[in-house]
Amino acid sequence: MTRSRLTVVLAALPLLATLLAACATAGGPSRYQQDLEAYEAECRARDGILQPRSGAYTGQARADNVCVIRGGSYRPN
């Protein structure tokens, strides 16, 4: 390996280490995912199916999805 390539590789190591550390600390479900799973469980308990709402994404599970009750009725939650 030439000296210039070695310099580039050594210069890139701290950046690579930082990126890997960021990925390692981002584990676990997000708050949105937790809220979505809870809402989906509530919806299923009512014999419903969770469906995404049309429109802009708000970042709030209950605003971004609707519980559609099967069996003839449609009740957004």
Largest sheet: 2 strands, antiparallel
Question: Helix content range of the residues, please?
Answer: 40-55%
Radius of gyration: 23 Å
Determine the N-to-C terminus distance.
Answer: 63 Å
Residue-averaged pLDDT: 79
What is the H/E string? Answer: HHEHE
Which structural class best describes the helix and strand composition? Answer: alpha+beta
Query: What's the overall geometry?
Result: elongated
Which descriptors would you attach to this protein?
77 residues, two-stranded antiparallel ribbon, 2 strands, elongated
Walk me through this protein's architecture.
It is a single chain. This protein is of the alpha+beta class and 77 residues long. It contains three helices and two strands; from the N terminus they run H-H-E-H-E. The protein has a two-stranded antiparallel ribbon with strand order 1-2. The longest helix is centred in the N-terminal third of the chain and has 23 residues, at 3-25. The chain is elongated. The termini are far apart. The mean pLDDT is 79.
